[in-house]
DNA sequence: TCCGCTTACTAAGTGAAACTGAATAACGAG
DNA sequence: CTCGTTATTCAGTTTCACTTAGTAAGCGGA
């Protein structure tokens, strides 16, 4: 459930979901998958998640913490928090516009 | 401005933006570009927009209206409205989770 | 009338990312 | 010692977003 529609867009980026997840606290990949599933309903396959982690790290929005060689935890960086806040603001604007427009008794009268 | 970050995700799907735009009323492509620019800050290039329109039409979420051979107007379908509402709900959940988590005095104490 | 601007869409080609799915492996429970 | 969960890596494919360029109708002004 909470399916990302194949063909057509995904409707929410993996990168955003990761940032939201890490905003709660440090996590390793596998826990992010579970967390993201809970708050967004999107179940990510490993390949999708780890690919996004790599790119986010290159961007400097998250950083790897000392790994215990089984789990590889990540932390969101200050730049990551900035980016997240900015994106959330944009998201809110779009969501509000959409809600306003899709609300008024569609199909009725 | 309102840049979609090249590499890394786009953070908002073109398809969603189109649905929000059409939720306000019928529009042809060029006007959607302007409308979307206004409410989301994302300026789409023609190729991006028209590609999304094609896929949305195949999906049955929008439909082409009789064209005057210069403008090609589109209308959102009932299924499109359903899909939009569902996506907005998901978006709101993500946005709320993100805002809650990114809020509490980050980096302070 | 013809020049140029805005409007409006079409089309081609590229790269990056999301997705699937399978392989690997450590660890705990029983 | 075996099975299920935890956790990550990797390979391969699809698809979308992006850029850019091209076509063309309509309109205002000189």
Automatic annotation (TrEMBL), chains A, B:
Transcription regulator PadR N-terminal domain: residues covered: 18-86
Q: Which domain of life is it from?
A: Bacteria
Name it.
PadR family transcriptional regulator
């Amino acid at each position: 459930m909470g399916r990302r529609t194949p063909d057509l867009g995904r409707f929410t980026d993996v990168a955003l979901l990761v940032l939201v997840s890490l905003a709660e606290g440090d996590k390793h990949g596998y826990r992010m998958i579970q967390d993201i599933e809970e708050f967004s309903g999107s179940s990510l396959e490993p390949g999708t998640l780890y690919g996004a982690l790599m790119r986010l790290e290159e961007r400097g929005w998250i950083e790897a913490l000392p790994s215990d060689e089984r789990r590889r935890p990540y932390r969101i960086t200050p730049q990551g928090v900035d980016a997240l806040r900015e994106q959330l603001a944009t998201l809110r604007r779009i969501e509000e516009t959409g809600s306003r427009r899709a609300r008024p008794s569609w199909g009725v009268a």
